[in-house]
Structure formats: C-alpha cells, structure tokens
Amino acid sequence: MKRINIFHLMFLVYLSSCSNSLDMVDSIDPIPVVYFELNPQDTVFYLTLTRTFAGEVSALEMARDPSLVYYDSAEVRLEGWEDQYKIWETQFTLSDRTKEPGIFPEVPGYCYESKHIYHIWQTIDSFRIVIQIPGILHPAFSIIPVLPEVVVPRWYDHEIAFYPNGYQFKSPGCYGAQYCQVLCEFNYQEYVETWLDRSVTFQIKKNAMTSGNNVYPDHFFNQLTKALTPFSEDVSRKFISIDLIFLYADQYYKDYVETYEYSGNQDIPAYSNINNGYGLFTIIRRAVYEDMFLDQESLDSLSMGHITKKLKFVRW
Question: Which segments of the chain have a pLDDT < 50?
Fold first, then answer.
C-alpha cells in the first residue's frame, strides 16, 4: 500500500518512479494540513486546509481527486482569549478560491475565509484556531500569543540614497517578533502608446533581524531586474516611488522557515505547531514606509547603471 503526505509529495513521486513493487507503510486515516497567517488588523482572514491521503494508485493520480485532497465541510473557528477567558470568536466558511498552479484539482475546497471585521485586538493576549472535521474524533487546534502591533514612526526618512555605502533603513521594530522580511513595492510608469501606472513587488531582505539593515545598490537593482523580467526593448519607463514593506512574524514562523531551509530534501517530519494535524498557525504584522524616493545619484544609476540600463528608465 502506498502512502502520500502532501508535504512529501515530490519525494514519493520520485520513489514511485523507481519501482512499482515498493511497499510503503499501511494506510492511515487522513490528517488535516493547516496553513494560517493571521494579521489581526485584516478585515478578511484566509486559512488553507488540505489533508494527507493514501491509496493504491499513483500519487499523481490521487492528487487530482478533490475528495482525497480537500476537506469541504470542516467547521473552522478563530477565538480570541484574554486571561484564560474567551472574549471573541469568528466562524470561517468555504471560499470560492481554487488552488493553483500545480497538479492538484482547481476546485473550491482548500481555502476557508472569515469576513468578520475585528475590532478588539487590543485586549486579546492569545488566539486559538479550532478545526472540527466530520469523521475525525479530535479537532485540530493551535494556540499562539499575540504579537504586538507595529507602529510606523513619524521620523523615518523618505529618501533612499544607495551611495556611497548602501541604504540603511531604520526598522520600525516590533516587540516580541523573531522574524522580519522586507519587501519593496516599486512603483513606476511604462510608456505603451501612453504612460501607464505599473507596480512590482520583490524581496530585499529575507530576515532583517539577522542580516542587518543595509541594502546595497547591486543587490537592489539585481532584484528589480529579476522582478521586471521579461522586459521589452520598445518601452520607456519612469520611476515614481517606493514603498518598503516590513512583515514581522513570531517564533513559530521563524521555526517553520528555518526547518525547510536547513533540512533540504531530507525525509524528515515537516515542522508543525498544529495539534492533531500538520502545518502552521502564526501571526504576521505589517508596517509600510510609503512614498519613498531615490536621490539623484541612485536615479542616475537606475537609468544608466550596468545592471538596470536595459530596463529603459529615463532620467528626469
């Protein structure tokens, strides 16, 4: 009997391609696989819910069967707790979103949503997600402490000057956070018969809490070039502004990321903080430095530098 876990799908596909006679472990009951990034200030929460699955046919064939991959009738609720008392709750319903791209069927069933507007985050000290699935005796659940809100300081400098020693941003900081990803939303105009507003987002710091706050021009412009690929020789572009986006997360998210970074393709159990299931429940906080601009030397490098000259940004 072959067994497939969503986290190890590619590993098992490889094994099955080597031999049809390999006998895996006996079949087990399906296990929920949960992924939920919670930002308490969002007005809509999205949670993905899939399952482990087993069968005697190939893994690829089983992965295309929605009844083997998704739970489409789960009861999902998010609770807010204060001093061991539940003071808030919202229910999730099945979303019409589909899972794409990949080999899984593009049908609703993996994503649940709650559109309840959340007003009382200031008084909650922990959250609990509870998932009750028909036919499964024990609910999947997880409890996490609140990560405080990030407040953007009024004193941040709107100018980005890459030269001579790289741009050093001052992180807004988030008490209790263990992980901070920094993204750039690069806003520009592109001329195609007329000037059109465009935007592209890319990562500039994987974890600013361990890699420092300097952003060097070669790294930034290389990331921008990758994000704009493919590009056309027939267009012209104008720089408009930059938004720096800081995504703060808790220890659970940090452990989740580092587990996959350090394990590679080894056959080890996936990191999880879900009881009676697999997956991740974590808090993400967001802060943005808006409407930042490049100084003249950095603008010149954008338009004429060896990395970005082919992007056709005009000097102005």
Answer: 1-27
End-to-end alpha carbon distance in the chain: 66
Asked whether 277 and 76 are in contact (CB, 8 A), the reply is no
Reference 298, options 290, 286, 289, 307; nearest CA is: 307
- pTM for the predicted model, two decimal places: 0.82
What pairing do the DSSP bridges indicate for beta strands 32-38 and 278-294? parallel
